[in-house]
Write a structure and sequence with these properties.
Residues 30-49 are annotated as: Disordered. Residues 30-42 have a biased composition (Basic and acidic residues). The chain has a 3-stranded antiparallel beta sheet. Helices cover 43% and strands 33% of the residues. The protein is of the alpha+beta class. The protein has 1 helix and 3 strands, in the order βββα. The protein has one helix at residues 23-43, and strands at 2-5, 9-14, 17-22. The chain is elongated and about 50 Å long. A hairpin with a 2-residue loop joins β2 (9-14) and β3 (17-22). It has one domain (2-44). It starts with a strand and ends in a 6-residue tail after the last helix.
Length: 49
């Protein structure tokens, strides 16, 4: 995978496909997924943690 990164976007060339990724959007998604994971863990009974 070849990438060219700017401050807010990353351009990725993979095979014949070209992607432009919004890095801020990706960071928000990662934070949201991490928060959801923590919430799921908090709801588990302690013996299953």
């Amino acid at each position: 995978m070849d990438g060219k990164e700017t401050a807010k976007r990353k351009q990725v060339l993979e095979g014949n496909a070209f992607y432009e990724i919004d890095l801020e959007c990706m960071r928000k998604k990662e934070r949201r997924e991490e928060m959801e994971k923590r919430e799921r863990e908090a709801r588990k009974p302690k013996r299953f943690r």
